[in-house]
Specification:
The chain is globular, with a radius of gyration of 22 Å. It contains 22 helices and 5 strands. The chain starts with 5 loop residues before the first helix and ends in a 6-residue tail after the last helix. Helices cover 61% and strands 4% of the residues. It folds into 4 domains: 85 residues, Rossmann fold (3-Layer(aba) Sandwich); 76 residues, no CATH class; 63 residues, Helicase, Ruva Protein, domain 3, CATH 1.10.8.60; 150 residues, Zinc Finger, Delta Prime, domain 3, CATH 1.20.272. The strands form 2 sheets. A 3-stranded parallel beta sheet has the order 1-2-3. It has a two-stranded parallel ribbon with strand order 4-5.
Length: 421
């Protein structure tokens, strides 16, 4: 299809809310002719209880790399996939998950670091009031199996992407026989392995960089994976760009990665939340427009903003009640750990639950949230939460473009003019 008309011939469909409309969308002829492409990202149809451990592992990897938004999204998907409910997240958030359940579901090493990951990510999901998706499996797969039995209409293409795949599923075998399967995972090559392996992705990055007689910082390698996932094709493509950018310099740094991969979805998410944290309206609008240009759903962006503002509100309350209402924006992380973290942990002192929730987070996340919350008054944050609610209503009732609603919201958040109505 021509590049000019391609956006009108490609539809990205949310499986949770729009899955039932897939047959109709595939039968609808493209406005300007040519192939009609319908894409469903992160389908649950290939996930099984045997393979879901890969989602928990990816959540942990994202958390270790500082990508809390991706970590919480993957934990939410994994929780639904294993058929657990809110009580599972509540126990996880309190650090009270029984050892047998940990071994059975998470299949990850159990230690201080993994405990902090689970408590922080589960705590954030609870704070955001996230809805746990229904368990994946036969129900989701039957939608696609029925479509395959009827046949994909001529001139139409259905594209499914998945974070994890159990190749034993009947749907996978059917697609393998009648369609095309593109394996973008970095794997060890062991027989029967179905999950992408982050440690192999790291090894691939180091190997490619070493071939150019260069070294790469650990945080730079983590930054590449945060922005590309563990797709072999994406890794190779982005590493090539970074190496060209670095040129004759012997070392690849996180600054290089950020500069080169600034247009990816994960980078845009970081840019947006960081700009809101720092109240830099120009940066926030650029990041927002970048996400919209990548066809990020308006409701998903609103969810990101809501989660960040809720976290800032928790941090602001803890700042007021435990830390005297002020924090030095120039303070180092080491100083925070030595002077302020113990005050959040203290048994005595007034606490509405905010200090405990902040203490349950990864210390570096709490450190950054407190510095960001110091730029806002509590009244501004409460007004921002009300404005987010109004924006959600506007999505559903006003008929205005999502982009306009979100731009007005971001302007109000950064300027401190988000008001109740």
């Amino acid at each position: 299809m021509g590049t000019r008309h391609q956006p009108l011939s490609v539809e990205v469909v949310a499986e949770e809310s729009e899955g039932g409309s897939l047959p109709l969308r595939l039968r609808t002829v493209s406005l300007f002719g040519g192939t009609k492409v319908v894409v469903v990202h992160d389908t649950k149809a290939f996930v099984s209880k045997q393979s879901v451990g890969g989602l928990f592992a990816k959540s942990w990897e994202a958390w270790k790399g500082g990508n809390l938004s991706r970590a919480t999204a993957l934990l939410l998907q994994a929780t639904g996939a294993v058929g657990q409910d809110r009580s599972f997240l509540e126990r996880a958030g309190r650090g009270e998950l029984p050892e047998p359940l940990w071994d059975q579901l998470l299949t990850l090493p159990h230690g201080d670091e993994s405990d902090r990951w689970l408590q922080e990510t589960a705590g954030r999901l609870l704070a955001e009031g996230a809805e746990i998706p229904e368990a994946s499996g036969a129900g989701t797969a039957k939608i696609y199996e029925g479509m395959l039995q009827q046949g994909i209409p001529p001139g139409a293409v259905l594209v499914l992407t998945a974070e994890v795949v159990d190749q034993r599923r009947a749907l996978f075998k059917r697609i393998h026989e009648t369609g095309v399967v593109v394996d973008c995972g970095v794997r060890t090559g062991k027989a029967g392995e179905t999950q992408m392996r982050p440690e192999m992705a790291r090894a691939k990055i180091r190997e490619r960089v070493a071939a150019e007689k260069k070294s790469i910082d650990e945080d730079a390698a983590a930054g590449i994976m945060d922005r590309t996932g563990f797709s072999m094709r994406a890794l190779e493509s982005e590493i090539e760009k970074i190496l060209l950018y670095v040129g004759d310099r012997p070392r690849v740094t996180l600054e290089d990665v950020t500069e080169v991969l600034c247009t990816t979805r994960e980078a845009g998410v970081f840019d947006l939340t960081n700009a809101v944290d720092e109240r830099e309206v120009g940066r926030a609008l650029r990041a927002l427009r970048g996400l919209l240009a990548q066809r990020e759903a308006g409701v998903a962006i609103l969810g990101l903003l809501a989660g960040e503002v809720r976290s800032l509100t928790v941090a602001r309350c803890a700042l007021d009640r435990r830390l005297g209402g002020e924090i030095d924006p120039r303070m180092t992380f080491a100083t925070f750990q030595a002077r302020h973290l113990p005050r959040l942990s203290a048994e005595d002192g007034e606490d509405d639950g905010s200090a405990a929730r902040l203490k349950a987070m990864h210390p570096f996340r709490a450190f950054n949230l407190l510095k960001a919350a110091g730029r806002y008054r509590l009244e501004e944050l409460l007004g921002a939460l009300s404005a987010i609610h109004d924006a959600d209503l506007a999505f559903k009732t006003s008929g205005q473009p999502d982009s306009l609603i979100l731009e007005q919201l971001v302007l109000g958040l950064c300027a401190g003019e988000a008001r109740t109505h």
